[in-house]
Protein 1
Amino acid sequence: MTTGKIDVLLATPEMPAMDIVAGVIAKFTGGVLFDARQKARRMWGFLGENLSPEEAQRLVGLAAEAGLAARAVPADAVPPLPEGVPVHGICPFPEGMEVAIGPTKVRRLIPWEPVRLVAAAPLKETTTTVRTVKEGPTPQQRAVGIGIMMVTGLPVGMGKSKEVKKTVHETELRLNMDIFVGGEAKVFRLSVDADKFDYASLGSPPEPGVAANFRRLLTAVAKGATMAVVNLGARSIVEGRSLAGLGYESAGDYEKEIRWLLTIQKT
């Protein structure tokens, strides 16, 4: 057995009920169930990380007692993710998909068989801008001034408008998709930004709205790549489920789930 650090991963690509996972984590850590639930929501397939071999085996055993199949793997066997190659168009065929990739939109036919994982997620993107706005007296200040003027008969100056710099934070959901192709030795990543994709490449007129077209794209790819694992986000979008409670709080959550799914396919 390896003497290095060990990760314990769920052995199957389906997410179990969070209460079951939380119960396992609580028993393993000796902590309270509330804290274990918080950890369970962010685990994304990793029951435990950077454990000793003895800790890993104990956690695998506790998972088995709860009916969860888990696997202990060397932490360095969990691969970092490759950089994504931007995909601007996908035309599905029975034998594969023709993709337009990179800044020059080079076209390439990729068979369905080596597609290992189809992943998607709604990710929060926050933009920060500094705006200059004019501010005058507030409604409350105006009301006070009018009240004084009515009592005294004297005009009350309200002050001049002034320019103020305000920092504005705006958060929106952006739909992202990644297709992982290749074998155990090397895998490459095709990345789709839903807002920058040519949906006419699917072979039928685009529908109104990005979300509907993105769902069409995911459905076409998942239908063709029958041997691939499909992550939680992609399944939810294809099935038309609500995306609000999926739990992708950051790109880190999404990428952690992908690393889990790629790892259990090769170990």
Protein 2
Amino acid sequence: MIGKKLITLACAAGILACGACFLPPPHMHTPPPPPVRLDLQGIGRIRVQVINASPTQHLDATQLASWLASQINAQGSRASVTGFAAQQPGNEDAVLEVTILSESTNLQSAPASNGQSIWEIQLSLTATLTRTDGQLVWRESDGNYRASRALLQEPEPDLWKEPVVQGWLTRGVGNRLVYRMMNAL
């Protein structure tokens, strides 16, 4: 019995001597810095204005403006910022002006056995957020937005008329643009 106690005591002393006492302290993990947020001091209401200046005029500018405003409301709630879509000046503190420069599609794969093909849709746009006093708050020049989607084989003009494509593209571009703006990317 006394032998077992001595062995246990020797093991405990060995563990303390070799591991617990003489090892370097564990590496302290520092949390990542918080994301950089856009300085929205003095901005409570943002008017969203979208212009489709592309030669093809496929994407509905009014629908994109409405979605951008709803995303500003959702993503800007922590900063107490609201958005609304309107072409004419109102009681806003800043204006988010988005101009669609070009719209294009590219067939990525031939139709599969189910009749679907992969289409890549690309938008090029510029966006500026400007205070009503003229101060530029944020800008994205020549933003390229690409997305791929499996759709039934259709000619390009018919592809743009699909409500699913319009909604999917509007939401995808709108979510990404507002996220980039709110996080000053």
Protein 3
Amino acid sequence: MSDGTETPAAQSADAQDEGEVIKIAWEEYRSGHHESGLGLLKKGLVRSPASVPLHLELARMYQELANPNKIIEYCAKALKIDPQNSMACALMGYAYIARRQTDKAVPLLRKAIQLDPNNTYAYEDLGRIVLAGTMSVVDMNPNYLNASISFTGDAPVEVRLLEDGIKYRQRGCKNNWDWLCAYYRMGVLYYYAGHPVKVRACINAAAGRGYEPAKEWQKEG
């Protein structure tokens, strides 16, 4: 992490509009000037304290820095301004996963999807939880297809409805791409359990917007 000294690029961002501040802040961050990038976004908030995008970019930057407490802090502030913001719910859900508080993560991720059925990020993180829980059942129970699984008060979901995601995982997840595809599948299958038409519609919508894990799923038929 940098020592916090502002670079010329950071200094020149003071008079820029919000979008430009975000762009320069990430350029600073990607160049290794982490504190400078954070500082730019925080300065932006001083000028525009009701800016949801600036709060969310700070949450994203703290996500990169593996600081779940700060993610929660800035997402909570964003939700006070815009209680219907899907991405704020999703990012906060991710932070609670990082803190191993599944009971708080699942409702937030479900809310994120309710607010925006196209929020692939929320499906991925919901799927991250579902995959871990499902595979623990699979590993312990040879008759796992007859079992059910439920998270934090959700109605039980039959494991057989998650079979596509299970088989994908069992074929071997060796890299980030494999895991991302598995998480997305499990999130969609769990959220729309028992509604194959909605599953297909979700896949097609995401693929139509260029989301690669959905395209991969389409190829398999």
